[in-house]
Amino acid sequence: MQKWTKSTSAMQHFGVLLFDGFSNHCLANTVEPLRAANTLSGRTLYKWQFLSLNAGPVTSSSGLQVSPHDRLGNVSGDLLAVMPSYGFRDHGGWRTQASLRAASQRFRIMAGMDTGSWLLAEAGLLDGHRATIHWEELTGFSERFPEVEACRERYVIDGNRITCSGAMAAFDLVMHLIGRDHGQALALEVAQLFMTRDSARSHMGGAGSASAFVNKALALMQEHLETPLPIPEIAWRVGRSQKALESRMRADLGASPAQVYRRLRLNLARKLVSETDLPIGEIALRAGYDDPSAMTRAFRAEFGTSPRAIRAAS
């Protein structure tokens, strides 16, 4: 079962190793959810650095130039995301292989993003592991590296090795890591921030057709925050029994439909408290509470503070 509430995990340090030709999309989908998790939790859960093999700037496939924070050889951390994207074959060779093998001794987890899997495999760092890569390269990858079990999946987590098939999958992967390490409540909140309609898939990492009705239930909840629907009606609308919805949502998100629905409504209330001057009574109504006192009690139980305290501090 997934964790619903956020944990007290220590801050994690990520390195993002960029090569000329990296994908802006993949980079943004990797770091923006981390930034959002920090913002929404009010804590520094993640820190990241952009790295390169050399000290000079790195240019993306669309011409965006990034000045790395440091060279790879100077940095250690919890996870290294290797991100070459386009022209990845030009970035292989003994120097890259040696740098990645050395980095594997300093980083707890090595992750190949998009075509980064190829460079990890070339360095021998995926031997005996399940792995994926951008699907256009999957056949060549499996032929070139028979000691790696190539899989046509959005992402693969196999011990201390992570591989990811592309930019959209990078978002799913990072959402999964946020949910795993800090609870599905935070992952769901990040998904809301990015207006991800398929919220369950985003932080379950592609839970598949078995969770399609959970996605539909979440969409219904998000569409009816001001006038909440009864849970039995939500179950009926998604074509499942209430018991089936309860069971699947607990399996996917680690919480009951009622808990998830309450969190969505209170997330809205917190946003309105922080970003508007609306009276608390009006905010309560918009979040589906007829009684402002009831909303305040629920708010305090969920977030450990009151709406007025948040407003006073902002």
Automatic annotation (TrEMBL):
Residues 215-313 form the HTH araC/xylS-type domain. Keywords: Transcription, Transcription regulation. It holds the Pfam family DJ-1_PfpI. GO terms for molecular function: DNA-binding transcription factor activity; sequence-specific DNA binding. Gene3D superfamilies: 3.40.50.880, Homeodomain-like. InterPro entries: Class_I_gatase-like, DJ-1/PfpI, Homeodomain-like_sf, HTH_AraC, INH-QAR. It comes from the Bacteria. PANTHER family: ARAC-FAMILY TRANSCRIPTIONAL REGULATOR, HTH-TYPE TRANSCRIPTIONAL REGULATOR RV1931C. This is AraC family transcriptional regulator.
